[in-house]
């Protein structure tokens, strides 16, 4: 995908140092150039995830059956403060390596477990040890944003981190809607430091239009502001976001499962608000943007069909195309981060952040007729053959380069062991297996006997009762 979203076939891409130097058929290349055969595959821009709580990766999959309420109780109220700097390091390391493996070359680490500067240093150490591009979005759910952004330690840390091409900086906090606007001081710090703010907005039951209105009234909505989710806002809030030029980071797998609101691409694209994609957290969901693209396209289309059906209509042409969600996963992220001039597309002069999807062992990788459709609905992270970040090969022949996965695993295992001991076995199990609310199977007018079929071993009927 180049800057005009053209699909170029039988072209070569030449990377020299950290940049794309040439694109064209049968390129002449300098002697000593390493050649990577991309025939039968797709070369696409490195994908960009604009909202990922990397520190939670050490608890991968633990909260698969959570609601947002259960997530808040577990991390914000009960166990988030148990995480030590080394646990933040372990989660970040695993999540950062996972991102590269899946072709996500830039990740915003929405790091809201930074209770102390030592936690923040651990987060940064992990990100710097992985050859990907990251943005540390500094946050701390255990204290008010005005407090933690107001300390001299935070200032010193932020100053120390400024202006790095491989590691950017944002400030991450949420706006409660309290009419006193206690977040005002944190916004002022961000403005002083000239750092963008990223905020979970339009989260059902947590953040709403009041927060947007307060931000707008005080002049804190800027083109660099990233509104995560924005799934349950009014038209007025969408107008304010559109008018001030900010973008929305849509985490469809998250919104579908946790309940922030319906994945909002259907409404934000109607307002012309720029979109980027994100995975949120792998304590619940997957951590790759193939899943994000697929979920987002499907959710948007599902909403459109539902809206038509309630009016008795039929959708005969899909409005949202595969090409558009690939754009969101690449250029959309670059724009959200103010990096559209050097990331997000395969163009001469841009950074050589490139992904090659190719898998000769997969029957799902041919025929390759519609590249955008193939990337969204056919390909998956296992098909990522090669990844370049800043011109450096970080994955080749389906294997990460220079990553000691055994060491990462050992570190994560130590964190899991520690957390499990801190919680105790009962809490650990309770956290992972929340109660299922009672549900009744509806009466069925076509059932005229008591017999419901004894189809499963052990005599369980289809409604779960033992016969
Ligand atoms: Zn989030």
List keywords for this structure.
467 residues; alpha/beta; eight-stranded parallel β-sheet; five-stranded antiparallel β-sheet; 15 strands; 36% helix; binds zinc ion
Descriptive account of the structure:
- By secondary structure, this protein is an alpha/beta fold.
- It is built from 15 helices and 15 strands.
- An eight-stranded parallel beta sheet has the order 4-5-6-7-8-9-10-11. It has a five-stranded antiparallel beta sheet with strand order 3-12-13-14-15, covered by helices on one side. A two-stranded antiparallel ribbon has the order 1-2.
- The radius of gyration is 23 Å and the shape is globular.
- Zinc ion binds at residues 51, 53, 110, 200, 228, 280.
> Helix content range of the residues, please?
25-40%
- Contiguous runs where pLDDT drops below 50 for at least 5 residues: 460-467
Secondary structure tally, helices: 15
| Structure summary, number of beta strands | 15
Set down the secondary structure blueprint.
Blueprint: E1 12-16, E2 19-24, E3 42-45, E4 47-52, H1 68-79, H2 85-101, E5 104-111, H3 117-128, E6 133-138, H4 145-149, H5 152-161, E7 167-172, H6 184-193, E8 197-201, H7 209-217, E9 226-229, H8 235-244, E10 247-250, H9 252-258, H10 265-268, E11 275-277, H11 289-310, H12 322-336, E12 354-357, H13 371-378, E13 384-389, E14 392-396, E15 399-400, H14 405-423, H15 425-432
Parallel strand pairs: 4-5, 5-6, 6-7, 7-8, 8-9, 9-10, 10-11
Antiparallel strand pairs: 1-2, 3-12, 12-13, 13-14, 14-15
Bound molecules: zinc ion (ZN).
Q: Quick summary of this structure?
A:
This protein is of the alpha/beta class and 467 residues long. It has helices spanning 68-79, 85-101, 117-128, 145-149, 152-161, 184-193, 209-217, 235-244, 252-258, 265-268, 289-310, 322-336, 371-378, 405-423, 425-432, and strands at 12-16, 19-24, 42-45, 47-52, 104-111, 133-138, 167-172, 197-201, 226-229, 247-250, 275-277, 354-357, 384-389, 392-396, 399-400. It contains 15 helices and 15 strands.
């Amino acid at each position: 995908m180049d800057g005009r979203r053209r699909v170029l076939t039988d072209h070569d891409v030449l990377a020299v140092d950290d940049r794309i130097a040439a694109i064209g058929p049968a390129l002449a290349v300098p002697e000593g150039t390493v050649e990577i055969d991309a025939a039968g595959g797709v070369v696409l821009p490195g994908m960009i995830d604009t909202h990922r709580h990397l520190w939670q990766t050490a608890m991968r999959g633990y909260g698969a059956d959570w609601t947002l309420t259960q997530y808040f109780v577990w991390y914000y109220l009960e166990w988030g403060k148990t995480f030590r700097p080394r646990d933040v390091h372990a989660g970040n390391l695993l999540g950062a390596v996972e991102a590269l493996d899946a072709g996500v070359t830039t990740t915003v680490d929405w790091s809201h477990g930074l209770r102390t500067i030592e936690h923040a240093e651990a987060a940064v150490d992990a990100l710097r040890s992985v050859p990907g591009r990251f943005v540390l979005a500094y946050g701390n759910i255990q204290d008010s944003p005005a407090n933690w952004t107001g300390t001299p330690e935070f200032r010193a840390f932020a100053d120390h981190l400024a202006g790095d091409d491989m590691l950017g900086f944002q400030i991450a906090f949420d706006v409660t809607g309290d009419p006193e606007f206690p977040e005002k001081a944190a916004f002022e710090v961000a403005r002083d430091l000239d750092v963008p703010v990223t905020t979970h907005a339009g989260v059902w039951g947590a953040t709403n239009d009041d927060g947007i209105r307060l931000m707008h009234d005080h002049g804190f909505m800027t083109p660099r502001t990233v509104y995560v989710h924005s799934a349950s806002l009014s038209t007025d809030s969408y107008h304010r976001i559109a008018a001030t030029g900010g973008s929305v980071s849509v985490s469809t797998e998250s919104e579908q499962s946790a309940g922030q609101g319906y994945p909002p691409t259907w409404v934000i694209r109607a307002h012309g608000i720029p979109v980027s994609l994100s995975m949120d957290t792998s304590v619940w969901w997957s951590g790759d943007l193939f899943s994000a693209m697929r979920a987002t396209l499907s959710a948007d289309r599902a909403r459109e069909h539902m809206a038509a059906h309630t009016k008795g209509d039929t959708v005969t042409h899909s409005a949202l195309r595969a090409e558009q969600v690939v754009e969101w996963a690449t250029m959309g992220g670059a724009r959200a981060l103010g990096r559209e001039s050097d990331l997000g597309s395969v163009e001469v002069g841009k950074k050589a952040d490139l992904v090659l999807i190719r898998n000769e062992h997969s029957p799902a990788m041919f025929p390759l007729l519609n590249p955008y459709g193939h990337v969204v609905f056919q390909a998956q992270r296992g098909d990522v053959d090669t990844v370049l970040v800043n011109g450096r090969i970080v994955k080749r022949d389906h294997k990460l380069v220079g990553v000691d996965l055994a060491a990462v695993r050992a570190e994560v295992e130590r964190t899991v062991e520690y957390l499990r001991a801190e919680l105790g076995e009962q809490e650990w199990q309770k956290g992972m297996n929340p109660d299922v609310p009672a549900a009744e199977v509806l009466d069925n007018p076509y059932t005229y006997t008591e017999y419901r079929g004894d189809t499963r071993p052990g005599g369980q009927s289809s409604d779960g009762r033992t016969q």
